[in-house]
Design brief:
Elements (H helix, E strand, L loop, with lengths): L8 E7 L9 H14 L4 E9 L3 E5 L2 E7 L11 H9 L6 E5 L3 H13 L4 E5 L11 H23 L2 E4 L2 H7 L5 E4 L6 H10 L12 E6 L10 H12 L4 E6 L4 H13 L6 E5 L3 H10 L2 E4 L8 H8 L4 E4 L4 H6 L4 E3 L4 H13 L1 H14 L5 H13 L1
Parallel strand pairs: 1-2, 1-5, 2-4, 5-6, 6-7, 7-8, 9-10, 9-12, 10-11, 12-13, 13-14
Antiparallel strand pairs: 3-4
Helix pairs in contact: 2-3, 3-4, 7-12
């Protein structure tokens, strides 16, 4: 085997989410990391992800390989072929960077710790979220898998350096990780400043105008729960039918069917619009037409859509998840407890009717946003890898 070039680090990046998945926060993060790290002259980058078929490709200075997982409901994130591939090439790697949390990545990290302890492991956990299962057996299996992944293998045995997004995640992993670095993901500030500057935004709408709300995120039970329907039902009554919610994001059909039944029951067919994924120019139109951005999520790390709303000058009402309470402390947005319909309705109406409050939130958010530029996150990740 050829000797490595002096000071050239071979970095293996593993992610459960493939690069070709569009619209997902983890996919956006992966693209940013790949673009940033592959541009560093002292890093030789290889990326491995899970997808439906195996293939190998090369893009400029970095190599990309996809592997199939098992076709089992609770073990679909195990890929024996990826594990075998990495172990065969383990002497090539200096660093292992894990994005997300999958059984494959945990098994690889464990085996590398045993067989090649000199390889430094760095992880951006994006902890597994809880899901609602009607089947008690399914719920038990999921909780067992989550316990094995997080507490037994990932932190107690492997103990990598972790880069987390919020105090919430930090408190979860603090007892188990060797080294924790908290660095919010943030957004590409220059990009969104350019978008906002390209269109004159009418900030001071007349109160008799229709209230336009915007949600950007996957349409599934964690990010667009049923309680969002109850919020819109109350707002329709209180605004005398002068409210509209635009929900942009990848649609998960099972949950979408449930939402549509609730929407029909509450007579909200003309109030809530699901757009699916849209091109960036269309998304910008939605940002600029919105009065308020709403985050209904049950759990998050560092939701980039909240930062995007702020960059576009849209005030935010969000559930207290992930980094949101930290943003609330700085007066950048309004928050409510998850599932509190009355509080969310009250905060939305208060923000819509109070021009001074809207302008104050927008101004504070824009002043604070440079601290959350994604460049800081990328630079921290790079420094951790090369140290």
């Amino acid at each position: 085997m050829k000797m490595k070039t002096q000071n050239l680090l071979k970095v293996l990046l593993i992610s459960f989410v493939p690069l070709e998945l569009k619209g997902a926060g983890t996919s956006n993060l992966l693209h940013r990391l790949v673009g940033f790290l592959s541009g560093k002259p002292n890093i030789n980058l290889e990326v491995c992800t899970l997808t439906q078929s195996k293939r190998i490709s090369r893009s400029g200075s970095w190599r990309y390989t996809t592997f199939k997982g098992l076709s089992l409901k609770f073990l679909h994130d195990i890929s024996p072929s990826m594990i075998q591939y990495v172990l065969r090439r383990r002497r090539c790697y200096d660093r292992l960077l894990i994005v997300g949390c999958s059984l494959t990545s945990i098994i690889i990290a464990l085996l590398l710790k045993l067989l090649s302890p000199s390889i430094k492991v760095v992880q951006i956990p994006q902890m597994h979220r809880d899901f609602v299962f009607r089947d008690k057996v399914a719920k038990f299996l999921y909780k067992l898998k989550k316990w094995v992944m997080i507490y037994l293998l990932n932190f107690r045995i492997v103990q990598p350096t972790l880069i987390v997004f919020s105090r919430e995640e930090e408190s979860i992993v603090r007892p188990f990780a060797r080294n924790i670095i908290r660095r919010p993901l943030g957004i590409e500030m220059e990009k969104y400043r350019a978008f906002a500057a390209s269109v004159k935004r009418e900030l001071n709408r007349a109160l008799e105008d229709e209230l336009v709300l915007l949600h950007v995120g996957d349409i599934h039970r964690n990010k667009f729960p049923v309680f969002a329907i109850e919020v819109m039902k109350s707002l329709k009554e209180l605004t005398h039918n002068k409210v509209r919610l635009i929900a942009v994001g990848r649609i998960h059909e099972g949950h979408h069917k449930k939402l549509k039944r609730e929407i029909k029951r509450c007579a909200l067919e003309n109030v809530i619009k699901f757009t699916g994924l849209v091109p960036e120019d269309k998304l910008i139109e939605y940002w600029l037409s919105a009065d308020i951005f709403v985050l209904f999520s049950a759990s998050e790390g560092s939701p980039h859509t909240v930062f995007e709303a702020m960059a576009m000058g849209v005030p935010v009402v969000a559930t207290r998840v992930g980094i949101v309470p930290e943003l609330e402390e700085k007066g950048m947005l309004l928050t409510v407890d998850y599932g509190d319909v009355n509080a969310m309705v009250e905060k939305i109406l208060k923000l819509w009717k109070d021009e001074n409050l809207r302008n104050t939130l927008v101004k504070r958010a824009r002043n604070e946003l440079p601290k959350y530029d994604v460049k800081h996150f990328l630079e921290v990740t790079y420094q951790v890898l090369v140290s």
